[in-house]
Records
---
Amino acid sequence: MQFIDQAVIEVQAGKGGDGIVAFRREKYVPAGGPSGGNGGKGGSVIFVADTNLQTLLDFRYKHIFKAENGERGGPNNCTGANGKDLIIEVPCGTAIYDGEMDALLCDLVEPGQRFRAAEGGKGGLGNQHFLSNRNRAPEYALPGLEGEHKVLRLELKLLAEVGIIGLPNAGKSTLISSLSAARPKIADYPFTTLVPNLGVVKKPTGDGTVFADIPGLIEGASHGAGLGHDFLRHIERTRVLLHLIDATSEDVIGDFHTIQEELKAYGRGLAKRPQILALNKIDAVDRETVDLDDLAKQLNHLALAPVFIISAVTRAGLDAMLQEIWRVVDEVNALEAAEVGV
């Protein structure tokens, strides 16, 4: 299945049904009055967040969505049937933007959350509506109104509590495969990961926490270089960032700064997000030439964040790292709950 996280579509709500001109023609009713019914309301276009969807792939092949029109009114004061609403299901985490103004209209995060993107047109009034003492036989009715038409931009941002970031080949995919049941493609060349991967890691309490393996960032990612620009948005919803650094790199400190600068350049508060650092691939490090403890101290001083020395392959150091992740996630969740309570 392809991972599609952006789409531009058009939505058209249904037109309201026309009102009609009609008069009562019944035996023993010599002065039958107007009886033209109103038109039905046009259907609206409604988005619904669905947990069973993971991608916006459906919108790659279909770009125009139309709701039903309302039915015209009938004689004997009968109102036309309303047009059916068009329900469009999207993955949880889909943000809907006005395609022309680029303004955020709605952020569908909760399962079942609904958003009425385009309102159906009102039905026209039949001639019975215009009956008055001055006009006992109105011979006019109103047409239904057009439904709203909008161009929308859909943007999917993954819902994960922990986002794993780092340069290509830092070992992010290997780590998520070690921690969860996710089985991403892994190879020894850059940009093996072309789409974000999600994995559920079980906490000691039995609950599951979603980790997102974000495709590798490079210098200039925030300005469109490499793959990072397309996927930086997926870090926006994460509560904690796990910054993975390749311990076999020739410039570990430089690699750290590269990612930090990209987070700052992208903005949206990513640089201020709680971070945990991990020096990975210690199983491949020559301990005689590389002082891992000294590197960890330098990174701790620069990041003012916990630094763990791990191997995603041998699972060395993963338990201690996970304990710190659970602690920080719980701390962030508690702070958010307190803010909501206030």
---
Amino acid sequence: MAKKIAAFGEVMMRLQVQGYELLSQASTLNYSFSGTGVNVSSALARLGHTGYLVSRLPKNAIGDAAEASLRKLGISPSFLVRGGNYVGMYFLENGFGARPSRVTYSNRQESSFNTAPDDTYDVEEIAKQIDVIHFCGITLAMNDNVRAHMKVLARAVKEQGGTVVFDCNYRPAHWGEGGYVKAKPHYEEMLGLADMVMMNEKDAMLILGMETDKEERQDQLMELIPVVAQKYQISVIAGTHRSINGDNTHSLQGFIYKNQTFVFSKLLTFSIYDRIGAGDAYTSGIMHGELAGFPMDKTVNFAAAAGMLAHTIVGDTPMSSESDILRAMTEAVGDVER
């Protein structure tokens, strides 16, 4: 059952203020290393697979620290390349009550990953060694060179019979004004290469320009997602719906669409400790369930529970084991584990 799974993506340095201070109030910052690819690869390693990251780190002490962090997270460094001078950074201010959390990026376009030249990665060798590769729409938004790396690597893995996973993760701010016009052809190309896709009805409408006269989100989802699956020949599409409640708890429901059938998870309501990275936990849960051959209902409930647990753990990277997640699916939580 265990697979060799790679994720393609940038390693980010997360600089977090203490408690609920604003950046303008803080005098100290705690740093760690993360990124969508880091989160997915590490989460799947904890679920029993071999996790790799395809990325480029600077050849200096910061790159050394980043690689050491990845090793600690259980990620194999086999496909890491060194070069350039910087890592992208983001500053995190924790939200409280009516004030949302805020992320501010710095130095991202100059990072070693985003300035990697054409021949940086040994694409053919990577494709031969892995079973599955994960890509993210945030990475797709970076620049033309990064997009070219993604597409070449996705095609190489497909040619070797591997599975391509694509998380749409559309962030309008990353594409700039009128970004959907620029983004659409790149998303369409990645959707055409993907076997498994993470998206919901908002992605279909915002990125692909699809229209519906339905007003309820679930009705929109059930109309649009089958059309996307058929058009791009995608085997599995999964995603979530989230709502924020008046008491500041969040409610999350996952879905999976496969074999022309929708299955929804239980609606989970929980308090938030750290919001960043929870979507990557859900994605990892869907991937694991599919690779492990879980029934659809078990896969989607496993993924939703993984996402819920990620909200309770500090840092971007999911840290739950399969047994942790299975227990969260079936048992009441909150008491001391003995």
---
Amino acid sequence: MTSRANLLRMRRLAQAIDGEREAAPADVARRLLAVQAQDFAAGCWALAVRTTGATRADVLADLDAGRIVRSWPMRGTLHFVPPKDLRWMLGITTARMLAGLTARHRQLELESGDFARARDLVVAALSGGRSIGRAELMELWEDAGIATAGQRGYHLIYFLAQTGVLCWGPTLRTQQALVLLDEWAPTTRHLEPDEAWGEFLLRYLQGHGPATIKDFVWWTKGTVAGAKTGLAVLGDAVTTLEVDGVSYLVTAELADRAASTPQSRRERDAVELLPAFDEYLLGYQDRRAVLDDEHFERIVPGGNGVFQPTIVARGRVVGTWRRPAGDGTVDLQPFEPLTASQERAAARSAEAYRRFAV
């Protein structure tokens, strides 16, 4: 049996929120394996906040250099991922993702021939290291007689990303351009199915643990059978702990690190300003350890699925924040008044965000 406070400390250590942080955004992507990035700006801050001081320009530089790619490796949600890991992730998630879209493709009158023609056109257009923006790709397909209206274009891109043809790569204007995955990330790891499940679970726990089997299955939109296969592959690399009657998985390395590293006062008093859709909250099916039910409406107003940026203190979500347009100040909206030490820590985090955003 361990305390909830110890559980939250281990999660903060795993996610590089408190304690030792990573040197570069690409290191964060490797550590967490996949970082929520459906909101591009928020995803960039999610990478930077876990480093020793990376700016937005540093994040974009890692994207432009191909050290991080963006795709839909799981749950139909865009994530930043390390390029060498994307293919094996798709290898165990794509079939389930596409099977769930059969009815939608029928509604959109998208057939196998449409996907094949769209693929041939984009491969011809991008071969040789070229890239293309979303709007330009829509125009390319329309000119060739492939309708893209009514979400058809989105589903064509999604299908080609799921099947390993495309990924989002170098920055373009305020977003990213599409590139051929074979050219942008030519080196890849080949993992057998059981080995891939083991790697998936290990990497999830290294960057998100402690967590439950249900958390992992939700995060990957995989299967309980796959999770159990991964657990069997990992053997003694993973152990369990119990908090409030719930059994959590944790890597032996993280458990040892937390036990052997004294908690500093700065770590204990830290207040972090995390972005919208951050992995610290969205990386788990059960979020009660970090967020009280009574405050959920403040994080997702109206239950519309749009998660607000959060203030985190001692591992708990204690409020929301925003940066008003045209104003350099960060507007903190805590659920309850912060203590004097928390206000000072929040001010340091706000300054870190301002340096990032410049």
